[in-house]
Amino acid sequence: DIQMTQSPSFLSASVGDRVTINCKASQNINRYLNWYQQKLGEAPKLLIYNANSLQTGIPSRFSGSGSGTDFTLTISSLQPEDVATYFCLQHNSWPTFGAGTKLELK
Amino acid sequence: EVQLVESGGGLVQPGRSLKLSCAASGFTFSDYYMAWVRQAPTKGLEWVASISYDGGSTYYRDSVKGRFTISRDNAKSSLYLQMDSLRSEDTATYYCTTGITTSFDYWGQGVMVTVSS
């Protein structure tokens, strides 16, 4: 199975900050990488698919980059409603998720 | 609007069975693969099983092979997960999910399964 190493596990930032979250795959997954946001008690919501495509309806402050084994989710200007846990998912082979990044406001 | 609504969760003793259902609407159910993903309390997400659009192919994570069965009824736009020989480590919220534009782009709200004596 492909392992997804996500970092950091926990992140504290201020409104307006630029925030980056990383996922590293244990082998090449091309661009088959999605990013999700999960708020407490809710289902995951797709933000970015295939590494850098913004899902319909998602604010443009969210962006994704990377290919191969290294990927990044960027929030250009953190908003209060962005407090959540963020997960990556590789779907190049049997799907595996990153362990998650819990984002809170400083 | 795509909607996925899970049902059938609850408290069950170890070794017993439970069947989850997922009612789909807002898309042509029979055109897309479906999957179950679970999340243990305070843990990350874990893919459980997938099924092809016509039900002809099924796939499972190793820890549930031989115990769980994924199936679908395209006439009813419904997905199922039959869970037998349940273990405490199967305790989780189970999500029904599909991939229309990309893998796992739509998710239900989840249903809780607790395996405990």
Task: Walk me through the topology.
The complex is a heterodimer of chains A (106) and B (117).
Chain A: E1 4-7, E2 10-13, E3 19-25, E4 33-38, E5 45-49, E6 53-54, E7 62-67, E8 70-75, E9 84-90, E10 96-97, E11 101-105
Parallel strand pairs in A: 2-11
Antiparallel strand pairs in A: 1-3, 3-8, 4-5, 4-9, 5-6, 7-8, 9-10, 9-11
Chain B: E1 3-7, E2 10-12, E3 18-25, E4 34-39, E5 45-51, E6 58-60, E7 68-73, E8 78-83, E9 92-98, E10 106-107, E11 111-115
Parallel strand pairs in B: 2-11
Antiparallel strand pairs in B: 1-3, 3-8, 4-5, 4-9, 5-6, 7-8, 9-10, 9-11
The percent range for helix content of chain B is under 10%
Mean model confidence by pLDDT of chain B: 96
Oligomer: heterodimer
Uncertain ranges of chain A: none
Describe the structure.
The complex is a heterodimer of chains A (106) and B (117). Chain A is mostly beta strands and 106 residues long. Helices cover 0% and strands 51% of the residues of chain A. Chain A has no helices and 11 strands. In chain A, the strands form 2 sheets. In chain A, strands 2, 4, 5, 6, 9, 10 and 11 form a 7-stranded mixed β-sheet that branches. A 4-stranded antiparallel β-sheet of chain A has the order 1-3-8-7, with no helix packed on it. In chain A, strand 9 and strand 10 (96-97) form a beta hairpin. By secondary structure, chain B is mostly beta strands. Chain B is 0% helix and 50% strand. Classes of the chains: A mainly beta (106), B mainly beta (117). The A-B interface holds A 32, 34, 42-46, 49-50, 53, 55, 87, 89, 91, 94-100 and B 35, 44-47, 59, 61, 95, 99, 101-110.
